[in-house]
From TrEMBL:
It comes from the Eukaryota. Gene3D superfamilies: P-loop containing nucleotide triphosphate hydrolases (3.40.50.300). This is NRK1 kinase. InterPro entries: P-loop_NTPase.
Length: 202
């Protein structure tokens, strides 16, 4: 039994969750773990001097729990809640991959935490320009809600900080343009994963 662990990281509102869900429908034996499920409760998240809750940093997340969840899945992927029915429009070149299990991990801060970096087979990073990211973010409702100035004061600066760290330290990351259509992004990542599956089978 082989496992493929795919990271789908990047900017807030870049389309990570949508892409992960679409890939899950198209790939055999595929599960998703979402980083958003590992946020600490609001009472444990630090507040800065401007009154901003500092959610867009690693300290706002139970990262060790997240690593544990991924490792547990890797030890026993067949036993998770994964649906093993045939994916929609499954193409023939996937028929022999029944013994390969795929985990898509999606989140905004995946590659800046060292213990996670030894787990990836492939890493993708969705980017958006500032204006588009701010526009999309303003259409979403968060719990707790974004306070005025939060995007410019915390969210965007943290995104740039972590992205710069990545560009300095990490290799083998495929950067994806989040302004492209969902179909284009899906086709690009799906095609890539199929190549990885073929390599695993060889």
């Amino acid at each position: 039994m082989k496992v493929l662990v795919i990271g789908l990281g990047g900017v807030t509102n870049g389309g990570k969750t949508t892409l992960a869900e679409k890939l899950k429908k198209m790939l055999p034996n595929c599960d998703i773990i979402s980083q958003d499920d590992f946020f600490k409760p609001e009472s444990e998240v630090e507040t800065d001097e401007r009154g901003f809750k500092l959610y867009d940093v690693l300290d706002a997340l139970y990262m060790d729990e997240m690593v544990k969840s991924i490792r547990n899945w890797m030890k026993n992927p067949g036993s998770s809640s994964v649906v093993t029915e045939e994916p929609q429009n499954m193409c023939n070149n996937l028929k022999n991959t029944d013994h390969v299990y795929i985990l898509i991990v999606e989140g905004f801060l995946l590659y800046n935490y060292e213990p996670l970096n030894e787990l990836w087979n492939r890493r993708y990073f969705l980017t958006l320009p500032y204006e588009e990211c701010k526009r999309r973010r303003s259409t979403r409702v968060y719990q707790p809600a974004d306070t005025p100035g939060y995007f410019d004061g915390h969210v965007w600066p943290m995104y740039l900080k972590y992205k710069n760290e990545l560009e300095e330290n990490a290799s083998n990351i495929v950067y994806l343009d989040g302004t492209k259509s969902q179909e284009e992004l899906l086709s690009c990542v799906y095609g890539d994963i199929i190549q990885e599956l073929k390599k695993l089978r060889e």
